[in-house]
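Q: Convert this sequence to structure tokens.
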Amino acid sequence: MEKHIIKNGDIQIEFILERKNVKNINLNVKPDMKIVVSASNEVPLKYIIDFVKRKATWITKNKNYFKDVQPEIKSEKQYVSGENYKYLGKQYRLKVEESYDEKVKYVRGFIHLYVNDKSNYRRKEKLINDWLRERAAIIFEESLDKIYPIVGKYKILKPEILIREMKARWGSCLKDSNTILLNFELIKAPKYCIEYVILHEIIHFKYENHDSEFYNFLTSLMPDWEKRKQILDEEIVRYL
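A:
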């Protein structure tokens, strides 16, 4: 990877250049506002820099979006009644109640947290996070079971799922171990968005790069994938 800084009028753009075996120049503004450009070794640096300059307005627009939405929502949870939690694309209000039987459940728009001591922050945090991880494991496996049949006929083995906390991506494909990593935060997204991420990563077992073959295959299997991705990038990311 190479880091470059260029000026386009009054705008300074810093980007990371990744040399990959891709047909086109790909430009991405990540949720953490990093700019990543991928291009093959055959593409001259000058051509890439000119390409980035032409995209300056688009880059600025996307960076401003992430700058506006992320700091406002990056607040620490207190695990008290009335807080909002995103789960499977919907907002749920938290209700904290003292109970000998400690558990978490969601009913009719509320997440109910039952805990021995309502003032024990660490215990409340653990109960909520453990519940979300349990739900993520179940939902992600159900989504894999739903999506896999449409790609299994292309001689792609059914992968295992591992759940990780990731800052800048929704998922990752590990071909050597036939495993896909999924971002724990995906539990906040609607199921149809989770299914898109799973399908996206499974296709990487057949097409390694984000080239035309990859996207043509993805579109043939899930014609509305761009809408699902847009919801992830524009709505769910603000809760990360």
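Residues 84-239 form a domain with the Zincin-like fold (CATH 3.30.2010.10).
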